[in-house]
Amino acid sequence: MTSPDLAALRPRLPSPLREIEDDRFARRGVRLLLKRDDLIHPDLIGNKWRKLAPNLTAAAGRAVLTFGGAYSNHLRATAAAGRLLGLPTIGVVRGDELAGRPLNPSLARCAADGMRLHFVDRSTYRRKSEPSALAEMLSAAGAEDAYVVPEGGSNALAVRGCRALGEELRGRADVVAAACGTGGTFAGLAAGLGGGQRALGIPVLKGGFLTADIEGLQREAFGARVGDWSLDDRFHFGGYARATPELDTFAADFEERHGLPVERLYVAKLLYGLVALAEENAFRPGTTVAAVITGAPFGG
């Protein structure tokens, strides 16, 4: 089998880097840049392109099977890639109680893009990294020969793919911040930055487990922990896909200030965290902070 021609999709790389004027940063002597990875490709947005592209090449034309929840950005991106490149895709969805129900808009988009959805119970889903459980899922989905991409797309190939994000920002900012889900994008970003630059991760899940996951991904991809990086776990707003009226108000205000549609699951929490840190004087005057905009609102 031959690898798909990803260059034919014409990604916009490097993605644009734009400075914005925001008094919450300016009055503390801090510059804010937005790294617009959401503009890389209209269907394979931001970190999804960077993580999926090397895995799609490795799939070499085979069906691609991957995992996600009912509102997974990763499932949607994989389904879109399958449509654009003519690859069969299978999505293993967490929650067998969803089977037989009308699909929500996110899963409906996956199905419309040709993804075959396979629902599994939550206990089975939690065991998806175990070889025996994975083999059973592949068999049940009729996809024994599929190329498997982990949940969120985070594996060594994806981490190496995201290293280019850090390389594009070398010499452009003192602190580079990104929201973190499974940690793959951040692991690569931190590895790609240059000396004197620091990566700051804002986890969108609660639990405090992500440091070990990111270190594991970096060891798998590069053989060791790489880069100057840290996480701030205070801005998850209750966990993945959780929000509060305060966060919604903040995101709407940011949109009005800067004309930027703010994706709520990741980007809103990142930007909220950076504003809070600026107000805490966490950034010295003269610091340039770059925020990675990893996605756009679904349907936006």
Name of the CATH first level of the largest domain: Alpha Beta
Mean pLDDT: 94
Q: Which runs of at least 5 residues are low in confidence (pLDDT < 50)?
A: none
What fraction, in percent, of the residue positions are helical? 25-40%
Number of strands: 10
Amino- and carboxy-terminal Cα gap: 36 Å
Proportion of strand residues: 15-25%
Question: What's the SSE pattern?
Answer: EHEHEHEHEHHEHEHEHEHHE
Provide an overview of this structure.
The protein has 300 residues and is an alpha/beta fold. It folds into two domains: 6-44 and 155-292, 3-Layer(aba) Sandwich (Rossmann fold), CATH 3.40.50; 63-145, Rossmann fold (3-Layer(aba) Sandwich), CATH 3.40.50. Helices cover 38% and strands 16% of the residues. It has eleven helices and ten strands. The chain has helices at residues 23-26, 47-59, 73-85, 105-112, 122-126, 131-140, 156-168, 184-192, 210-222, 245-258, 267-279, and strands spanning 17-20, 31-35, 64-68, 89-94, 116-120, 147-148, 175-180, 198-203, 229-231, 288-292. The strands form two sheets. A six-stranded mixed sheet has the order 1-2-10-7-8-9. A four-stranded parallel sheet has the order 5-4-3-6. Strand 7 (175-180), helix 8 and strand 8 (198-203) form a beta-alpha-beta unit. Helix 2 packs across helix 3, helix 3 (73-85) packs parallel to helix 4 and helix 7 packs across helix 8. 44% of the residues are buried. The model has no long low-confidence stretch (mean pLDDT 94).
Blueprint (SSEs and pairs):
Layout: E1 17-20, H1 23-26, E2 31-35, H2 47-59, E3 64-68, H3 73-85, E4 89-94, H4 105-112, E5 116-120, H5 122-126, H6 131-140, E6 147-148, H7 156-168, E7 175-180, H8 184-192, E8 198-203, H9 210-222, E9 229-231, H10 245-258, H11 267-279, E10 288-292
Parallel strand pairs: 2-10, 3-4, 3-6, 4-5, 7-8, 7-10, 8-9
Antiparallel strand pairs: 1-2
Helix pairs in contact: 2-3, 2-7, 3-4, 7-8, 7-9, 8-9, 10-11
